[in-house]
Prior knowledge:
Helix content is 33%, strand content 32%. With 281 residues, the protein is of the alpha+beta class. The protein folds into two domains: 15-129, no CATH class; 138-276, Roll (Nuclear Transport Factor 2, Chain: A). A six-stranded mixed β-sheet has the order 7-6-11-10-9-8. The longest helix has 16 residues, at 178-193. Mean pLDDT is 77; it is low at 1-9 and 57-73.
Amino acid sequence: MKAADRIDLSYPTNRVVGTIGDADKAKAAIDSLLQAGFDRQEIEILHGEEDLRRLDRTGVLPQFQRTLSRTFDLEEFKHLTHHLEDVRAGRFVIMVLAKRRDQRIKAADILNRHGAEFVGFYGRWAWVAIPSTEQTTPEEIPALFARAWNAHDPDALAALFDEDGEFVSVTGLCWHNRESIRNAHADGVERLFGCSTLTTDATTVKLLSPEVALVHARMTCTGEAPADAAKQPGGRTTILSLVVHRIGERWLCASAHTSDVNPNTETNVSEGSGVMGSAAG
């Protein structure tokens, strides 16, 4: 397979990256990227020992290693290491320069369509997963949310949202962009929800226009860790409300809001110090 023209190699800022193991599928992905309007200079293929040596000559590997030694816990460098291991294993790592959001979605869709794994976007400060958009409809967003939750994968969960997406938690906490949504759920996984399971029940969709929809899903979370020394909590049922909109062939969340379901109650009443309890009608 003839690779696309070489580009300068450095930390892959503003690039969508994915791994394809099969040479024919990798070639087909490159052809599709070119047909979609990406320039050859915007596409880089890494494959085999030659590219590893080239990475080493350009100083990229030492740069990664130095950064890893300073900030080993940063998630994006775990992904960089993963991609480098893919190259060592003989797989094809495809990097596509995509500065605009529509370009990123288009490039990720093409890579996913051709069987790419570990598809994500390297921003200036963070890596964000971009999951496959096949069969993505408004009805399926809650199921994708639950899948990411059950995998304890805050990157995949945050990837369902716009970069400036909004999330209001069941306790009224507000997060105002994808990164803060990701960080909040990563913290939740670490402290409370690392062994939890989220199931999706009834889901309803109301199309506000061909490009915008309102989604409500009834969801139940079990396995939540007890707070402090409190007794093990039971299952929690919530309503997840989403405003989603279409971008190309993909639907993304502009806003999400969760509300606890309290059977046989009509309102909440203050019990002092801001603590709310349920009140029957």
